[in-house]
Specification:
COMT-like (chains A, B), COMT_C (chains A, B), 46% helix, alpha/beta, Acetylserotonin O-methyltransferase (chains A, B), 14% strand, EC 2.1.1.4 (chains A, B), homodimer, Arc Repressor Mutant, subunit A, 10 strands, globular, Rossmann fold, transferase (chains A, B), 339 residues, three-stranded antiparallel β-sheet
């Protein structure tokens, strides 16, 4: 029964974020009537039922003495849109794109192909591209914010899993988008110079996010525009791929990691991959399997196991490859050009 | 993260039921290739990823020695369409109607009104009716099967919670649909004569389900057609309302229970309500809150607490009212006309 109810719990959360409930409750605790006014909702009984459901899901709490609603600590951290750890972008992306895309899961299984066209009438050719994610300005910005938020909750653990992280001097994040991995890396290593490498259309988003960091961080990050399959890569002694490989099939992944291998210096060059790892027999964790099916309905890619990433990297020459389960939504795989 | 992923888990289950995966695996355990043939799915890798997700959700299992997939015991019981305890109808209803209806939860909260029209372009007047559930023959049949399946998993516990159930001789289930409560009641009490009271269009469904029972049961059940708000009720010493009151507002509920009160004999007459109870402060259980919001997007009703049902029944004269938490998806509330 709890699996059947899953979509109802998701939609309750999506609706609460969409209404900006947590933004209002992070400033002050509020009575039902005051909350109704702030949210511009005229029907108190309907709002109260909705708030009860949010309480049942432990998203908010009600003080029975003063009858005021407030956020839980975890909602203040992840569900307030201005919080540095906010997941509201990721939730918005799930609510506005993925929720409907998943109604086409049967088609995706039948065709082994993404389902943007059937779901949203988007026009694209035979081959998967990111045009579907970027089908209009709002969707593009929401996807950026989604990936930024998710990255912020995971990348510190990814970077921390690399014990020789301080040895790197130059860093390039391929498909680096808003720069959340570059920012995290520069915070963790005060001598690092970072490049975000992504499509020209992404630059405005990256600039916006980087400008919000302190001068010490933003002065060490530059954006270099390019298509990572078509254009030459910059030079760097650490390349990162944060949630990039899971968008592509094995053939394209191999082309990309080989290109990175060649761009690395002979000595101390490394590649760091941030992805959610499936266990070896692919029977979990549930969230990785769900992300794998999300890749099936949305991209040409898939989630992989540690041995699969090892094989991919070994094939093009990487050595000393290790996987780290970080305990967050993203794990880490590192490989070196030389022993 | 697990709340965000909820809809993905739901859709994985919905898709597995839609593909009739569990029907195939209940007959025999199957290799990936054989399953692909039976399901007419040409892409083995896509199917395998989907099956891995089903394993992660514990819906199926894989024997690592012979590489064959099979159902878990719980899937055999609830997810096989011919199982007597099947929930496949309920799952189909959630998949085909409720999943999309819930995308309009923000509108439902804003308007305090059901959202069939906005979701499916159905035409209805200002007031909620069941025409939306019965908008075409398939949807009507699916809803019948949904309620039947859910009833079968819960009604035995509901009936068992009434310790003097053997005292009743005549029984009328208001809005009795497929007769699942009438069938359960006749099984539990061998002397009971039962009437299913529901709209004329429902009779064909009831007849179909009743004809599947043994002669001993079906000979004691009749269908009487009528609209429970407009037409006179039959005579019976036990009236039941199984998931009926949660479809309607307090005013209509009171009209209905008062009508039942009057139709009962002075001595030993009783009303039995089967609904999911909210705890007194309405902060759970989650599944009851989710059902409450489902009532908000789909009907004019709501889920209620034990004190709310007590008040509703006391107002029209019922006495000795008791609530029973059955531990299943439906709880029981009983009230008597005399002490």
């Amino acid at each position: 029964m709890s699996i059947i109810d899953g979509y109802r719990c998701s939609q309750t959360l999506f609706t609460a974020v969409g209404l900006k409930l947590f933004d209002h409750l992070t400033k002050e605790e509020l009575l039902l009537e005051d909350l109704a006014n702030k949210l511009n909702l005229p029907h108190l009984p309907a709002l109260e039922r909705f708030l009860n459901a949010c309480i049942a899901l432990k998203l908010i709490q009600l003080d029975k003495t003063n009858k005021k609603y407030s956020n839980t600590p975890s909602s203040n951290k992840y569900l307030v849109s201005k919080s540095p750890d906010t997941l509201t972008g990721y939730i918005g992306h799930n609510s506005q794109s993925s929720y409907l895309l998943w109604t086409k899961l049967p088609n995706a299984i039948h065709e082994n192909a993404p389902q943007w066209q059937k779901t949203f009438n988007t026009i694209h050719g035979e081959e998967f591209t990111f045009d579907s994610f970027y089908r209009d300005e709002n969707t593009e910005a929401l996807f950026m914010s989604a990936m930024h938020g998710l990255g912020l909750t995971c990348f510190p653990a990814v970077v921390a899993s690399i014990d020789n992280f301080q040895q790197f001097k130059t860093f390039c994040d391929i498909g680096g988008a808003t720069g959340c991995l570059a920012i995290t890396a520069c915070k963790a290593n005060p001598n690092l110079q970072a490049i975000i490498f992504d499509l020209p259309r992404i630059e405005k988003h990256a600039v916006q996010y980087i400008n919000q960091t302190s001068a010490d961080i933003r002065n060490r990050i530059i954006f270099q525009s390019g298509d990572f399959f078509r254009d030459p890569l910059p030079r760097a002694d650490l390349f990162t791929l944060g949630r990039i490989l899971h968008d592509w099939n094995d053939e394209k992944c191999q082309i990309l990691v080989e290109k990175i291998y060649r761009a690395l210096p002979e000595m101390n060059g490394a590649i760091l991959i941030a992805e959610k790892l499936l266990v070896e027999d692919k029977s979990g964790p549930v969230t990785a399997n769900m992300q794998d099916l999300n890749m099936l309905v949305a991209t040409a890619g898939r989630e992989r196991t540690c041995p699969e990433y090892k094989e991919l990297l070994e094939k093009v020459g990487f050595k000393n490859i290790k996987c780290f389960w970080t305990g967050t939504y993203l794990d880490a795989i590192i490989g070196y050009k030389s022993n």
